[in-house]
DNA sequence: CCGTTTCACTAGAGCGGTTTAGTAAAACTC
DNA sequence: GAGTTTTACTAAACCGCTCTAGTGAAACGG
């Protein structure tokens, strides 16, 4: 048997197609008695709306898009991405909105997908991640006039609403903590300078370092990969004026850095304190467990979902929102630095 | 200006709607000259098909579904999932098929999504992961008659085609390797017994142990979490007859186990060899790097995508396929066990 | 040169919904 | 109780595309 259409329901209930449509959508124009009868027939016949048919009549497609331009490896590796995905999902599925995921090669391909999906009416809105300096995707989405929410900022995302984290404040608090422990030589294994947040963190470290009179607060940019994280760590630990504390911009790099320290015979935390700017399972399961600045990525996904749904319902109504301030979870990888006596 | 429809193109090119449709879909019925002219007009007007309209006329929805019933944490944590996703994407996007992702609470919800998406014509097919013993999803998908490909098996997936790995063979090779190094006391931190592959691995270990006359080849089932992986390791390492080698069913548990060993002062690999049944970034970046059985999860995703597309194109044409046999990458976490002299 | 086949193209009926315009009856006005 | 408004419902257009049936002209066959 083929799936029932509203026509079948209409026939069975002895009313017109339109009456069925009204009843099923909770619209006025049918009496309560008729409405109940229609609903009963519909559920008896196990009717479900045909998404495409609805979308064709100008309605929503009930889906949002997430397009990511990253190498496959990164997507598998970073817990951030999976958690964000799960959080988005949770926020969307409550209103049974689907998530269309697309993983592409580069930003050009990403923009092409935005264009295509918009004109095909494939999705009702987009979530934009990995905000970059002078991001080319922003003007395109603005031009397309499609609802979109940016994760990142503040600044650099034009008129699109964003959910942003105060990376500057986070970095300052991190440095304050390490300085309070007595660290004077702090180094930073940073991410990719193409990203806004990386730049902000680097700048914040510089400022804090000046304010607290730290020695050599150097930031080494990387591409976020474990390989570059490891080699940056190796270089820093080999320098004559070896830092006593390292700040890593990602959990993956922090773990890689930890391995380098072990390999070089540098004890953590006795000889080196390690802090990660990102928290996850990774930082928890290694030994020693890594002190990390944690934000609830799952919750973040949910928040973005809510913002995007609002932007779809009422374009222009959504404004920038500052996400929860990340909190430091102290674990086993940080302590006061070596003193001469100990050494 | 509103987006162009085939009617606009028809008017501009001076032909009928149908001629445009034929031309755009590469169907016979138009002369080469007319076809070229229509295509030129279409691209000039920047026309794109309206997905919903196409889908409504009985065509495909050009999307496949992946529904996962797992806690959010797991999805973020396991590289497997992200890599699979990326691989699937790569395989699908070549034919510009979208991936609809849905993360749900439990199997009941998952089945509900299968029902809904099928009757809504939301997707053309499904990918089924985490195959369980007596899996309830299989008969539902069979009943719905929707194309689907299972990752897992062999066996237990009814008439649905599956891409399966030979877990038994893999476990045997692993045990052979450890036995060749001289290990006699091998223990296994297993996954969830609800999963088919976990059961097969446990059975294989038992068989190998009997064949090789190993002592105490015990398997401890867990829920795949780092916490249970850690406590299983703790228990095994505390037993009077401590194993000299541990096999972990997942990378996350292997890393957690490594941390427990460090915490208990058990040196790896000197005092304990560690092997992971799954390879990923995780096993590579920790210290010591973990010897692991690796399969190319990204490629696996691509293979599944290809199978599903074939199943959609020609239902019933796709048969079970055995995936590539995982290969052992030896790293720093394995060596011959302690001998009495060394101890 | 007439009948048949092929070709290039058009008209128009769906696909499964939504929505507007219209209608008959019931319910209010005063 | 005639006129107006409201209510409950129907008919049919419409969304953008696909595809079948049909048409007129050109090409072919003998």
Structural features, described:
- Chain A has 14 helices and 12 strands.
- The first copy, chain A, is α/β, with parallel strands linked by helices and 343 residues long.
- Chain A folds into 3 domains: 6-48, lambda repressor-like DNA-binding domains (434 Repressor (Amino-terminal Domain), Orthogonal Bundle); 63-165 and 297-325, Response regulator (Rossmann fold); 167-294, 3-Layer(aba) Sandwich (Rossmann fold).
- In chain A, helix 7 packs parallel to helix 8 (137-144).
- Chain A is elongated.
- The model of chain A has no long low-confidence stretch (mean pLDDT 90).
- Chains A and B meet through helix 4, helix 5, helix 6, strand 2 and helix 12 of A and helix 4, helix 5, helix 6, strand 2 and helix 12 of B.
- The structure holds a DNA duplex (30 and 30 nucleotides).
